[in-house]
Each structure stands twice: as C-alpha cells, then as structure tokens.
Specification:
heterodimer, A: 777 residues, alpha+beta, Aldehyde Oxidoreductase, domain 4, Aldehyde Oxidoreductase, domain 3, 3 domains, seven-stranded mixed sheet, 19 helices, disordered N terminus, B: 162 residues, Ubiquitin-like (UB roll), DNA polymerase, domain 1, 5 helices, 5 strands, 30% helix, disordered C terminus
C-alpha cells in the first residue's frame, strides 16, 4: 500500500470492502431507539380501536389515571388542537392531503386506529393502564372492499365526499381503440395483488426529549429520513426548525415504511411537551401489523395488442389501489407512476392508462420498496399469458419487443425518457446463466415423469435517484481534522443500506486517502446538512454527488498548500495514500497530517488566498431528473401438484446498476428485495376478514420467508454507467420489483399442462390447489 | 404485583435485582442489566431476535421470565466477542460475508449460530438452513448469513433448499 494511486483512480469503489457498520452491530453495541434510556424517561402505549368504523361516544380515563405510575391519558381533545401544520415536505403545504388527526376524533376508521395515548413509568404499566381505558363505541358500517368502495354508500372520510381519493390518466383508452380493433391478437386480463408489507424487524420507534425552559426537542427516531422528521416536527408543533434535533443512529430496517411521519409519531411529538420526562414509544409487532400501514393491495385491467408476429402495438392499464383510511403520503401521484411505466423496457408505440386510489376502513397505505411495482407484475404476467395464447415462447416474445441499445434514448409512449439502460443485455445474460434450452429439456423430461417444473422471467426499468423537488439535492461536509484524519458528515443514517461504508469508500477515493483514515458521522440533524434520506433508491448517486462536490474543494486546497510547501506547481501535485506528492517523484511529498497541521496551526505559512483549516461543505444538485436502472429476474421452480407447495430451484438476477461501489452491498440489496418479493408471492398476506378485522396480527399468521425456503440467488452484472456522479445508479428497490412476476410466471409455467391462467396473488398451497382443481373439474 | 429477588450470571458477572414475576428475561437483560444488544422483534417467540444462551442453550428471552433464569449463566450478544473487542469466528464470518444489513436481527442470529455450531460443528447445508429457520431476517434474504455459516464450517454450500 505504498504506491501512490493515479489522480481520479478508485482504490476502494468497486471493491468488496467490509462494512464500517458491522463491528458495533455484530457485538450488540448498536444504538436503536429502544436502546436509548434517559433519566426520568416515560413510556407510551396506545389505546387502539377494535372496530373498523365506529362513532366514539365517550372515553373514560379515570381508572387508568388512578393507577400508580400512570402520568397521563391523552385523547383527541388533549392533543389534536395543538397541531400547527401537518404536511410532508415531498407533497408540500398545498397538497390535496388526507385529513390526519393525530388521535381519532369522533370516529375511528380502521381496526388499530389510535384513540388514546397512555403515558406511564414503564411500558408494562402503560399496557396495564391501556386495559383500564373504557371507550364506548357505536359501531358503523365499514368500507372493507376497495374494489366496490367507489360505489359504496358509506364514506370513509365524510369531508372528502367520496371514497375515490383521486385519479390520474394518460391518453384516453379511446385513442387506442383503432389499434386494438385491428390487432392480430389482443390479450387482456384483470390481475390482482394482495396486501403485503415491509415488516422491518424493528417496528416504528420514537423517543422525544422536550426541554421546557429552552423549547428544544431532541428526538431519537427509527427513520429513513431524519431531516424530514425534523421538518415535520417543527411544522407540527410550530417550533423553529433549529430547536428540533433528530438523531437516527441505527434503524432496524424501513423498506419505505419509515420515510414519513405518521399519526402515531405525531401523537408522541405532541404529548412529549405535556409530560414531565422524555417520552418513548416502541411499536410492538402486533401494532406494526395492524397500524404501520399496508402496501401492494391493488388490481388492474390490463390489455395488450400484438401484430401477427407478436410485436406489441399498444398497451393499456386501468389501475385501482386500496389506500386504507389514512394513506401516507397522498397516494395519487405514486399511482400515476404505475400507469406511466406499464409499457416497461419494451418497444410499445401506443399506451394509455387510468389510475384510481380508494379510501377504505383499513390501515393506510404507505410506501414499500418499489411502490409502483405493480406495473412490472401486471405487464410480465400478461406477457406470459399472451405468449401462451399466441403459441410463442415467452422468452422469444420478449426478445422481439425489448428495447435495444441502438434505440436509446427512447421516450416511452407515456413520456418516460429512458437512457443508459441495457434491457436486452440483462435479458440475454440471465437466459445464458440459466441455459434456457437445457432447462426446457429438463422440464419436458420431468413432465413425462409426472413432475411439474416451471420457468418465469421478468424485465423492468425503474427510475432511481429522483432529481426534482425535495429529493434533488444532497449535502456533504468533509473535515480533514488537524491530525489529518477525515470525517465526512452526511445526512444518511444506518437503516441497512450500508451508507456509512459507501460514504467512507467514496470519500477515501475522492481525497486519495487510506480508508482507515476516514470516518463518517450521520443521522444527526444537528451536524449534517439537509438530505431527503433513504428513499427512491437515491443514496448511492446522491451521496456520490455530494462527496464529489465537497472533495473537489478540499483537493484543490490540499494541492495548493502542498505545492507551496514543496515548491512545485499545483497541477503537478497528486494525492494518494494519505499523502500529497510531486508527480513522478513520489519521495517528495507530505502526509495529509503534516498538511493539516500547517492548515490549522500555521496559517501564515499558507499560500496567499488559501483559507486556514481543511474543511468544506457543498451541496450537489442532481445531474439528471432520473437515473434509470434495469434488470432481468429469472426463476425456476417445481410445484407439487398434490400439495400445492412451490419449491424454488434457481433464482437469477442480471442487473445494470452501473459501476458498483461495493459488490457486497449491491448483492445484499438485491437479495433482500428478491426474498421480500418471493414472500409476497408465496407466503405473505396482510389479510382482513370481510368485516374489516385484521387476521394476520402475529408472525404465526403473517408468514415471512425463512432460510429453509430461499433459493441461492445468482447475480449477473451488466455495466452501463449513468450520466450521474461516478456513473452510479440506485439498486435499493429493484429486487422487490423484479422478483414477484418471475415467481408467478414460473409457477404458471409449471402449471401450464393444467390449462391454468394465474391472475391472482398470493400463490399459497391453497390457491395453487384450487387453480389445479378448478381446471380439472 | 409479586416481586422476587433474582440472581443471574450474565456474561460472567453476577446480576442481582428485585423484579416483578412477570418481567421477561429479555427486559431484565435490556433494562435491569443495561445490555441492549438483545433485541425484540415480535415478543411472541417467532423471530428469534432476542435469542440468548441460558446455560449454553439457545433460548428466546422474550418467552422466559427473569425469575426462571435465577441461578443460571446467561450469555448475551455482548458476551460473544473477546473482552478486547476481537470478534468471534461466527461474528467475523458474518462481517466477511455481508451477513447483516440493518443489524437488528443480527444478535439473535449470532447467538443461535454459535449455539448450533457448538452442537453440530459440521452441519450439512440442509441442517444449517433448518437451524436458521427459527430466526427471521428482512434485509439479507439470508444469502450472506448462509454463506457466513458455511465459511465457519468450511463446508461447500448446497445449491438448493429442500
């Protein structure tokens, strides 16, 4: 490690560097919110509605308040009037928002709706007291089925005047009528996805320490976006932003659920100013499964027109999603992404879409890893159905329609400007990795022996790193400390995305220093500049941009000082191995420690115009509106037609996320998303009964994949640099987008001999058995 | 609420306290002993995040009362690495194989795997998968975790689950 690296070369980016997060997390020294214990801390527990819809007649808190150790029992009358403003930064103050009372006011709207908040000296006592709060409910009819919600006489929010939250559309369907009427083949189905959810291993969590004399709040939050928590809290309470400090050291997974402040967290922020000690709320698993939010529950009528050769002529989707009673955020704009991306990475000359988002008396919709992934699910399921109907191999049908590199840039029929992607390359790479012809041969032999194997594929293109509005910038501060060691301050916060390691790798390369000399401080709004957090697969590209901009300032300054001291020209100074040396004469140089000592402690020795110290801050503004990412998922399975059990055999992901900062991290992100997608197809279902009661409120009922069910995931990598910093692209969400249709298509392919058409998820043993029986019967 | 004096040896140190009979071992470790490395992911014995060793056996500390642990020797995640911070073989393998992301489930996995490999130092791939099936992870898709256990045992990794 003594050879200086060439200017601009990367030593650490691209390498499988061990994570800097791991030492503390492996040894029980992480700091999750529940690990924070402050003197005089009090504990909160919610009284939640057992009914999907009811009028609250009265709440009797006397018995609970009389219990020793209980400090307060708050109801809507206590907390709700203190709301100053409630809106999420990405939506803005003028957004057509859902009413969001912190505690239910007059009416409960789903099972789990928070009605009262008990504060006691321990969680045990708070739970005891919850049982003593008597709420008198008058049950009301509930809107449970979102597919009929639009016509329902009952309204979830009377003030909204309709259960239709909003709708969006592209070109009207009538514009494509002629294409569909004259097409050689038209294939249409209605495809349904059940509700399944992020289920981070740590539930939501918040601890709020309010100081009455100063009016300051210190908030420990399980969040993907500490700065959004701060902004939201400052608006909610009407407190200046600088009086709110949010600390998010370790967060136990988020996957979208922990991006935005919801009603429960609002209650804790509001209540913290009314109790005599810091207030902590730790969501338990039951609460997480009934009150933290639902995702994915949606369906669409989808249709494609093909010519006689299987070339796609047009695609149409009419999409409807269940958004529950209190969606966070406003769900209408996300639904439009489903419509706009439905044509996918294919050559689709004409397209139209409509989307509808519905209120129901169930838990509110929240983001989940690839919140628009239904477009990929529906398209890829429909393509397989079409291939079967037209008698074309499903891979060949895709090959005829996938976008080729020479067609880029390509603006899809809904205006999405794709570029720097490689859908044909990932597709062919995945098929090669499988040896598709060999699999078809194996499948035929197995069928002859009475065994049912299947193969399924999906292709997608997704927008990562949104470059607009609230998401468009990211800041970094880098300090070369007086000793020459480097600290990088960036919004970040560890939620499982390895962003601390990423930052250290990128900063070491950008400054030409040894990685051991770099540390990072994140997840504390008191010392980091505003950043929109881990959302939209934005961390890699945006962080790289922030470090690029900031390190450039420092590099120039370091070179100027070194050139002055070494009597060389600044352009002849190169940085590497934590040293500045003269190009071609590596023995003539100074360590970063020596340069930093001069910069801080001998300021008059610096060249004219160079400021003292070695610290800089800069803010990167996204180079592009989107960084497009594509991948192909390919899966094989065996279905036991007697039991309906599915065994996954191989799972191949070929992705193009551009250059990899750390292949371990890339593969880890893909694997996590893929297994969440597998779970969503085969095991997971956030289910309600027809009366609106949640029936999967424990891990005995809500089934997550375990180590015994997951296949070995095989990775292929195609590298098309993005136009953004380092050529990097986002990779956090794609696994959960691509996996579900690959699994569904594999199961459907295995069951093809039975004449089965799969249009509904999940595909548990019961559903598979029914599909086979239905077609046999 | 009945209170009892309980004495547990935790990571080699005697820990005595007067506790309510209903206090779980997990809360005793976290709140009474201030060892917050043991995490709670479900509090109904499914996720395995709260796994600790009680007299060498892997136990879900959310399903055991502190009073039931009286007189036992408990090892938590804080007691797995050497006192100077050097990681155990299992911990080091998790680091090498990217067997953790958010780290919330990790203490339970480390403790479970440590106990499992004590009992069965040369497991098959299928035995490893079954041993891990009592611990849930939401970040890794289990890929890095399985690789880590294979690194420790030196066994070849099977290509297929059963």
């Amino acid at each position: 490690m003594t050879v200086p690296t060439a200017e601009g070369s990367t030593r650490y980016a691209g390498a499988r560097i061990n994570r800097v997060e791991d030492a503390r997390l492996l040894s029980g020294r992480g700091t999750f919110v529940d690990d924070v214990s402050l003197p005089g801390m009090l504990h909160a527990c919610f009284v939640r509605s057992p009914l999907p819809r009811a009028t609250i007649r009265s709440i009797d808190t006397k018995a609970a308040l009389a219990m020793p150790g209980v400090h307060a029992v708050f109801t809507a009358a206590d907390l709700n009037p203190d709301v100053n403003e409630q809106w999420h930064t990405s939506v803005g103050p003028e957004g057509p928002e859902t009413p969001r009372p912190p505690l239910a006011e007059g009416e409960v709207r789903f099972v789990g709706d928070a009605v009262a908040l008990v504060v006691a000296e321990s969680r045990y006592l708070a739970e005891d007291a919850v049982d003593l709060v008597e709420v008198d409910y008058d049950p009301l009819p509930a809107v449970v089925d979102y597919t009929t919600a639009e016509q329902a006489a009952t309204l979830v929010h009377e003030s909204h005047g309709s259960n239709l939250i909003g709708q969006m559309s592209g070109l009207p369907a009538s514009a494509l009528q002629e294409v569909f009427d004259s097409a050689a083949h038209v294939v249409g189905e209605t495809i349904y996805q059940q509700a399944y959810v992020p289920v981070p291993m740590e539930g939501r969590a918040l601890a709020v320490d309010y100081s009455a004399p100063t009016g300051e709040l210190t908030i420990y939050s399980a969040t993907q976006a500490p700065h959004e928590v701060r902004l939201f809290c400052s608006r909610l309470l009407g407190v200046p932003e600088q009086k709110v400090r949010v600390i998010a050291r370790d967060t136990g997974g988020g996957f979208g659920q922990k991006i935005m402040v919801q009603r429960d967290e609002m209650c804790i922020m509001l209540a913290a100013r009314k109790v005599p000690g810091p207030l902590k709320w730790i969501e338990d698993r039951r609460e997480n499964l009934i009150a933290a939010g639902q995702s994915r529950h949606e369906h669409a009528a989808v249709k494609m027109a093909f010519d006689a050769e299987g070339t796609i002529q047009a695609a149409q989707i009419d999409f409807v999603s269940d958004c529950g009673a209190y969606p966070t955020p406003w769900p209408v704009s996300t639904s439009s992404v489903v419509g706009a991306l439905f044509p996918g990475p294919y050559r689709v000359p004409r397209a139209s879409f409509t989307t509808k988002t519905m209120y129901t008396n169930t838990v509110g919709r929240t983001a989940y890893r690839g919140p628009w992934q239904f477009e990929t699910l529906a398209r890829e399921m429909l393509l397989d159905i079409a291939a079967r109907q037209m008698g074309i191999d499903p891979m060949e049908l895709r090959r005829r329609n996938l976008l080729r590199r020479d067609e880029l840039p390509y603006t899809n029929a809904n205006g999405m400007p794709f570029d720097h992607i490689s859908p044909m390359e990932t597709f062919e790479q995945a098929l090669d990795m499988l040896d598709y012809p060999a699999f078809r041969k194996e499948q035929a032999e197995a069928r002859a022996a009475g065994r049912y194997l299947g193969v399924g594929i999906s292709n997608y293109v997704e927008p990562s790193s949104p470059g607009f509005g609230y998401y468009a910038t990211e800041a970094a501060t880098i300090r070369v400390e007086p000793s020459g060691k480097v600290n990088v301050y960036i919004a970040g916060g560890s939620t499982g995305n390895s962003i601390e390691t990423t930052v250290v790798q990128l900063a070491a390369d950008a400054l030409g220093v040894d990685i051991e000399d770099v540390a990072t401080i994140q997840g504390d709004t008191a010392v980091t500049g505003f950043g929109a957090g881990a959302a939209g697969s934005r961390s890699a590209s945006m962080t790289a941009g922030a470090i690029r901009e900031t390190a450039a300032i420092l590099r120039e300054r370091i070179k100027a000082i070194a050139a002055h001291k070494l009597e060389a020209a600044p352009e002849d100074i190169e940085l590497g191995n934590s040293r500045a040396s003269v190009r071609g004469t590596p023995t003539i140089g100074m360590s970063l420690g020596e340069l930093a000592r001069a910069a801080y402690f001998d300021p008059y020795s610096l060249p004219p115009g160079v400021p003292a110290g070695l610290e800089a801050s800069a803010r990167y503004t996204a180079d592009t509106r989107f960084v497009w990412v594509n991948a192909t998922h390919l899966c094989t399975c065996e279905v036991d037609v007697a039991t309906g059990a599915v065994k996954l055999l191989r799972f191949i992901v070929s992705e193009d996320c551009g250059p990899m900062i750390n292949p371990n991290v890339v593969e880890g992100q893909i694997a996590g998303g893929v297994v969440q997608g597998i779970g969503g197809v085969l095991y997971e279902h956030l289910a309600y009964d027809e009366d609106g009661n949640p029936i999967t409120t424990t891990f005995m009922d809500y089934l997550l994949p375990t180590a015994t069910e997951v296949p070995v995931i095989e990775y292929g990598h195609i590298e098309t640099p993005s136009p953004g910093p380092g050529g990097y692209k986002g990779v956090g969400e794609g696994g959960a987008i691509g996996a579900p249709p690959a699994v569904v298509n594999a199961v459907a392919d295995a069951l093809a001999p039975f004449g089965v058409t799969v249009t509904r998820l999940p595909l548990g043993p019961t559903q598979i058995h029914a599909l086979i029986a239905g077609n046999r019967g | 609420m009945g209170e009892t004096t309980v004495n547990v040896t935790v990571n080699g140190r005697s820990c005595e306290a007067v506790v309510e009979a209903r206090l779980t071992l997990a809360d005793f470790l976290r709140e009474t002993c201030h060892l917050t490395g043991t995490h709670l992911g479900c509090e109904h014995g499914v996720c395995g995040a709260c796994t600790v060793l009680v007299d060498g056996a892997a136990v879900r500390s959310c399903l055991m009362f502190a009073v039931q642990a009286g007189g036992t020797e408990v090892t938590t995640i804080e007691g797995i690495a050497a006192p100077d911070g050097e990681l155990s073989t299992v911990q080091a393998a998790f680091r090498d194989c990217h067997g953790l992301q958010c780290g919330y489930c990790t203490p339970g996995f480390i403790v479970s795997v440590t106990a499992f490999l004590e009992d069965n130092p040369s497991p098959t791939d299928q035995e490893i998968r079954e041993a891990l099936s009592g611990n849930l992870c939401r970040c890794t898709g289990y890929q890095g975790i399985l690789n880590a256990v294979h690194q420790v045992t030196g066994a070849a990794r099977g290509e297929e689950p059963a």
